[in-house]
Fold this sequence. Notes:
Blueprint (H helix, E strand, L loop, with lengths): L1 H73 L14
Amino acid sequence: MEQRERRREQSERKKEQSERRREQSERKKEQSDRRREQSERKKEQRERRREQSERKKEQSERRREQSERRNHRVLPNSPPPPPTIWSG
């Protein structure tokens, strides 16, 4: 009779332990999922920043070229543009 009681308690404890383990593993999974999502977001942010800086670089390059062209016309020691000949 006492043995049966002890066995019942043991199995009860085992059940509780396994339940706790299950919960722990569940929490671990959630944590790892969250970490994965965070790193994913970070990667996306990095990518966006890279693209932005790329665009900025292109823009500044275009602006530089434009200002160079403008400055070219203004330079006094540059030869004057050839006169436009209207045909007709």
